[in-house]
């Protein structure tokens, strides 16, 4: 589902001694979202004074339809502005969630697989960085490490260096994998969605009129 697709469910509004669907209450919201770049479909429902915005199958905003102003620009409609802010913030959150899910999927696929980007095993002959240095006269002859302070310091330096090398290796692998995978089209890369990818048909005036007649023919319970 596209992150720029919004469904607006609205019911009949009982104002001015009439109870019927009034899509003009959502004119400002629809025009502003379309101007920003969203695609919005108005879906009539049989619930009185009901208005709900849905993105990616999740509810992002709900209000009483009577709080929206009839055929008004968003700048003069506080409820409409709150709905627009909710859609924009939800779109950012959905993009962030998609990126995080892709990241963890890529890690789960790449972390423990042997490849040119996987962590490599290093041995003592491969490391030429000194990790400890001392005067040989400070070490005791043929003595256990528990009684030789310099020997204990050397052992601690080796253990700490091993941890640091593992951490550096993981960080280098991480950035190498990101540099290789982030902007490459693969099954784990974020996908681009266009209007042609959405299989939900657009709501037409004929469908809206048919739905309104069907709802008006049914008794409305208070």
TrEMBL record:
InterPro entries: UPF0728. It holds the Pfam family UPF0728. It comes from the Eukaryota. Belongs to the UPF0728 family. This is Uncharacterized protein. It comes from Heliothis virescens (Tobacco budworm moth). The lineage of its organism: Eukaryota, Metazoa, Ecdysozoa, Arthropoda, Hexapoda.
């Amino acid at each position: 589902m596209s992150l720029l697709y919004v469904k607006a469910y609205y019911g009949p509004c009982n104002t001015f001694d009439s109870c019927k669907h009034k899509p003009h209450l959502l004119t400002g919201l629809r025009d502003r979202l379309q101007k920003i770049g969203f695609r919005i479909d108005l879906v009539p429902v049989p619930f009185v004074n009901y208005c709900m915005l849905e993105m990616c199958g999740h509810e992002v905003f709900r209000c009483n339809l009577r709080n929206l102003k009839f055929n008004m620009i968003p700048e003069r409609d506080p409820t409409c502005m709150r709905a627009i802010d909710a859609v924009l913030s939800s779109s950012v959150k959905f993009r962030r969630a998609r990126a995080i899910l892709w990241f963890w999927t890529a890690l789960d696929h790449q972390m423990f697989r042997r490849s040119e980007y996987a962590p490599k095993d290093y041995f003592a002959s491969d490391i030429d960085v000194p990790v400890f240095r001392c005067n040989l006269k400070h070490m005791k002859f043929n003595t256990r490490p528990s009684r030789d302070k310099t020997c204990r310091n050397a052992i601690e330096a080796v253990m700490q260096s091993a941890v640091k090398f593992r951490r550096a290796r993981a960080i280098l692998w991480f950035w190498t994998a990101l540099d290789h995978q982030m902007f490459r089209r693969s099954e784990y890369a974020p996908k681009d969605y266009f209007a042609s990818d959405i299989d939900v048909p657009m709501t037409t005036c004929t469908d809206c009129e048919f739905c309104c007649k069907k709802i008006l023919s049914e008794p409305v319970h208070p």
